[in-house]
Amino acid sequence: MVNVAVMQEKIRVVESKRDALVRLLEQPDIGTLRIDVNQALEELDDLIDEFKQTFPEEENASN
User: Fold this and answer.
1) Helices and strands in the chain, H and E counts
2) Least confident of 16-20, 34-38, 59-63
3) Nearby residues of 47 by Cβ (< 8 Å), 6 or more positions away
4) 8 touches 55 (CB < 8 A)
């Protein structure tokens, strides 16, 4: 069983890496890779949202 604090830290790491995908999406010369990057961003956002819905008290406790 995974500790909630460990999952919370991993989600923070994933959130920090999201900016790299956003910067990549802004590049004009990525061609069809844009589709994959956009899909990755959507799935990443869904994952983060689901985590926050599942553990709302954990998010508030860390603030």
Assistant:
1) 3, 0
2) 59-63
3) 11, 14
4) yes
